[in-house]
Amino acid sequence: MMLDIMSYIPAKRKQAPSGWVSFNAPCCHHRGEKQDKRGRGGIMVDPDGSWRYHCFNCRFTAGFEWGKPLMPKTKKLLEWLGVDTQDITKLNLEILKHRSIHTVIETRQSIGRWQPNFEQRDLPDGLTIIDPSDSEHQLYVNYLRGRGIDPLQYPFMVSPDAAARNSKRIVMPYTYNDAIVGYSARFLDDRKPKYFGDVQHGYVFGTDLQKETWTKVVVVEGIFDALSIGGVAVLHNDINDNQADLIRMMGRQIIVVPDQDKAGIPLIDRAIQLGWSVSIPPWPDDCKDVNDAVVRFGKLVTLMSILEWATTNKIRTEMSKKKLINRIKYRYE
Q1: Which of 66, 243, 307, 324 has a 20 to 30 A CA-CA distance from 313?
Q2: Among residues 200, 233, 250, which one ends one of the domains?
Q3: Alpha carbons 31 and 58: distance in angstroms, whole number
Q4: Phi and psi (nearest 5°) for 154?
Q5: Domain enclosing residue 184, as ranges
Q6: pLDDT of amino acid 105
Q7: What integer pLDDT is reported at residue 177 of this predicted model?
């Protein structure tokens, strides 16, 4: 039995280019919150029929994957969406038939690998998902569009009514396997620090956004770089061992694209150490990172240049690194 979860989602919905579908969350009023009327529920359905759900109001999460029994939270969500209890029971029985095979495969794949176990974390209070039609959200909408990012591409959250700097921030939830495990806040004023967040050791941003059919993963430093190109971000200019394990688990060709400034050099050295591909496209000096390149050239051209200049050859990488260092020195002379 294959349950089409989308047939139970309200007709009033929005779909982002990333595949996330937002709609009024059915869970809030069942959990003591006011009924959601601002489309704070989100669901991502994969080609194989598995899915994950987040509510960015009451923070309820649930998911479904073939081979794994339905968890109580998943059953609750299905009930709240109007799925008949008999259909839920039938679905669970069908899953159990395939469970033993799935468990064997999953166990074999996990042998010898670090298994991430991130704690679930709360987001700051008073946040709401960006709504491009809300006049109070235009500051944040304009900022994202100025960086070449669709405001509906990701569940960006804001708090226009908050005090001080918090009224001018965009909060990006960190998720891993259907759970919120931290966040990053980007302040839009001129004060420092520009970013503040809650990140756990070994976390890599964007793993939940990767598609099963992709054969390559682009590794970058920053969140906006990752969102611009459909990649993952290590959130600094190094890759710790746990992050390296997490990226390897994707089972894809790994291409590291460093920022083209002095701070990006350590990321090149670490990628060489790991034996991963490195790409340093000859972008102009005003394109210091992937997001700059996407704003300048567009996503497709930027991605093509990354693929064209990707190499695992250590000598070629060292030559590109030397050229980059010389360009950086020239830039500041």
Answers
A1: 243
A2: 200
A3: 7
A4: -145, 155
A5: 117-200
A6: 45
A7: 85
Residue at a domain's end among 53, 88, 110 = 110
3-class secondary-structure state, position 328: helix
What's the token pair of residue 37? 């009327």
DSSP letters spanning 223-254: HHHHHHHT-EE-SSS---HHHHHHHHTT-SEE
Residues 61 and 166 in one domain: no
Sequence length of the chain is 333
Q: Which residue has the higher pLDDT, 177 or 206?
A: 206
CA distance readout (Å), 263 to 19, 47, 200, 244, 304? 33, 39, 22, 19, 24
**Sheet with 277-279, side-by-side order of all strands:** 232-233, 216-220, 253-256, 277-279, 310-311
Tally of domains in the chain: 3
CB hemisphere CA count around 80 (13 angstroms)? 19
Same domain, 126 and 22: no
| pTM of the model as a whole | 0.69
Percentage of residues of the chain with pLDDT beyond 90 = 67
Single-letter amino acid code for the residue at 83: V
